[in-house]
## 1
Amino acid sequence: MRICAYAKQPVRTVPDPVKILAALAEPTRFAAMAMLSDGGEHCVCELMRRLGATQSRMSRHMKILKDAGLVTDRRDAQWVRYRRNAAMPGPVAAIVDAALGAAVPENHGERTAA
Amino acid sequence: MRICAYAKQPVRTVPDPVKILAALAEPTRFAAMAMLSDGGEHCVCELMRRLGATQSRMSRHMKILKDAGLVTDRRDAQWVRYRRNAAMPGPVAAIVDAALGAAVPENHGERTAA
DNA sequence: TTCGCATATGCGCAAATGCGCATATGGGCG
DNA sequence: CGCCCATATGCGCATTTGCGCATATGCGAA
């Protein structure tokens, strides 16, 4: 029912927040997003090792994060490098940041975001 | 493993972000939180009518939100009034607000949070 | 107490989700 | 080419999750 039918751009569909939340609502995926939030690239083999997941599981989890638009992947020789999607719509990035921020165990009440 | 053993308050356990995300990652529950974000109280019968859910389903969904610490309930005669938990830890409220903010359909690219 | 409205819960079922195993695919190297 | 490493995917299985139905419980009114 595209509201902005006149829009030139491919109608920036407002991403379903529920889908974003579901993608993050799994321990391994959440931990993966936390790893990727260092801004760098990480291959599946590194993710699986650091997070203690099997190869197939980690690959599938990353696909879910990718489908949700939270990460991007890039083929580099025999590796696939994943990184946090820098082009996430603002509201989506806000969800991710808020979730990751709540995971910091240090602060028991203090400010988290900046 | 209570880190702040000296705390007088009942050790504000840092809530598991994944649990919060899971509580929100369901359409009916998400919509319920959106309804409650008007700051007011809403009984189950109102929630179920407005959201098109059956009574038992709505009751259970609200229990999940309550267990996650996102809402509080209050018995009022034959009704149970739910409202957004005003005592949510900051980081948790940040997740909820970010998620609800991403749901606003109006803004297709504009600023959402203030 | 009995009735009726509002809410919670036990139960079984169906769909979704996460997992491991095996295998396929992609790419570098000898 | 053959081999190996890294990643993706088909498949079956077990668990979780959401759902409706029926029923139990709470509460006010007659």
Note: The helical segments of chain A are 17-24, 27-36, 44-51, 55-67, 90-103.
## 2
Amino acid sequence: MRVTMRQVAERAGVSAMTVSRVINESLRVSEGARTRVEAAIAELGYVPNRLASGLIRRKTGAIGVIVPDVANPFFTLVVRGAEEVAWRAGYHVILCNTQGDLERERGYLEDMLAFQVEGLLIVPAGDQSRPSLRVLKKNDVPFVIIDRSIAGHDGDLVQGDSVAGARRLIEHLIALGHRHIGMVTETSAVSTARDRLQGYKEALAAARIQFRPELIVEASAIDVGAAHDATVKLLDLLDPPTAIFSVNNIAVVGVAEAARERGLAIPRDLALVCFDDIEHASRFLPFLTVMVQPAETFGTIATQLLLDRLAGQVSERRRIVVLPADFIVRESCGAHVPVDDAAA
Amino acid sequence: MRVTMRQVAERAGVSAMTVSRVINESLRVSEGARTRVEAAIAELGYVPNRLASGLIRRKTGAIGVIVPDVANPFFTLVVRGAEEVAWRAGYHVILCNTQGDLERERGYLEDMLAFQVEGLLIVPAGDQSRPSLRVLKKNDVPFVIIDRSIAGHDGDLVQGDSVAGARRLIEHLIALGHRHIGMVTETSAVSTARDRLQGYKEALAAARIQFRPELIVEASAIDVGAAHDATVKLLDLLDPPTAIFSVNNIAVVGVAEAARERGLAIPRDLALVCFDDIEHASRFLPFLTVMVQPAETFGTIATQLLLDRLAGQVSERRRIVVLPADFIVRESCGAHVPVDDAAA
DNA sequence: CTGTTAGCGCTTTCAA
DNA sequence: TTGAAAGCGCTAACAG
């Protein structure tokens, strides 16, 4: 049986109320009582039941963070940023992993509500996440969407500039002489995929290169294997691309695997660029030419927006924060710059 | 204001009890009542308050997972495995990140207790985590320790065979002709660091190579920068190592950075091996020679052990599971095997 | 400074 | 099949 407040009170020879006051650091407790209560707490290993206190106070001191995949280095950084800010503000972060699965997302969303988190940070699985968010609104739980906008939703949002970023990557490939540029993307139900495809098209249009639909292949973002298979389709074209733009840092692993199987060396036989870095990998071997988004900042700013709402010091208007990405040229695009970024 | 059961009951024209029965899938509810209640729940977007139900039932349907760093690919996989098994068993996973910080670990531990999780999976920060675990015992909360044993603690444990793994890596380096082998490790308060150092020593002894303490440098495991600085010390020795053994996959990034700064090419000028893979990186560019531990299995088995305890179908005896690691030779050790594993 | 009373939202128990 | 009463562990509001 778990230790309860009453047991602590008995042991300390006071009422439950006094124990409660000690725990909540109320000043109105005599030195003697406080000492005895603290001793009893230590001896018994008492941990206050937040279900009970939360029930009354409507405060659990927790915020929920829901992401498709903590294993994705991008989301990992988002989470780290969020946790850092939340912790400093006295909140604890509870993390949920949806695997990009709508049902699981819905489940965890309700879970978080059920546990009475005070607010939520969500990287939605896609546009279809919208109905799930209605539950949050109905229950008056503030939340901030991260990374992916949701068509038709108008809440707070922190995202990158995917259109501009993709355009920049493609312009770079074009400048290097590429004309057949393939793209491995994910479902268009995800806004970043839509936006990056648009950036791709814009860059092509600006260079008067005709858009060829067969150069666009779709794969699930979470799954390296799917990206691999999609890439194989590209490489099997009669007129295969000389460069590939991967929609993100997970898909790019599949692209590289497919290329390696075919004996294609990067960048000699195939140029490769993508969105989002692979944190540890890029430090270990700086190789991929990428648009690096400030993932950690996505997390810190989103948390800040949420904390504002929790503090009630915010208007009803939605706030949208768009963070620019950095273009980092390394080897995989074939531009032959020094390996070490610092040497640039 | 959040939607409550009473509101649903009023709207459906029944008592709260009937709503409760519908939610908990009791069969003793008339068809008509059930339909009306379900309609009311949907209209209102009602989500049952688990703080309240958990308060009574002592069941929250959640298990807590506490790790030093979700960004570490090894722990990420552990978490994924745990979540998969937990989810299938009807449990939800709540994740906490301690950054290897004892205070934070303690805080999250109490948090999890406070939220009344039914059990915990813990990758402890180190031996000093032991006092924190007493709180769990006092409150009768089952838990399983993962990856790192804790001196003096005797609960369920899932870990790798660090001694044998390290010995294998060092034997390999010795076979390649190395005699000056450095090791970048972390605090000996972490059992895996202790064990890997022991494996290192055993391999040296077996080859009758004298152990030189100055070849062992210590760094915080979480921090790439610290590993970098530690490596610099090794490279500054009058008689620097020709090979380095990194205690894990995070430290190895710092080692590589330091080597690159010095203009040392791996493996030409310096051989490099380590424990644990860098998931995406290794698929993208198979380069590091490593002992790969079955991280996901650490998570699934630990969860299984925990679920057993939760089901109460287990004796009081502790259970220890030791999982072997795979030795994967790639390029960084200088053994010149084909890049592609499949080609072996 | 300390204790008592009431009740958070829900489920258990029991009676109808 | 349904509801009323009691209470999970805690704290707000009050009284002393």
Note: The radius of gyration of chain A is 25 Å.
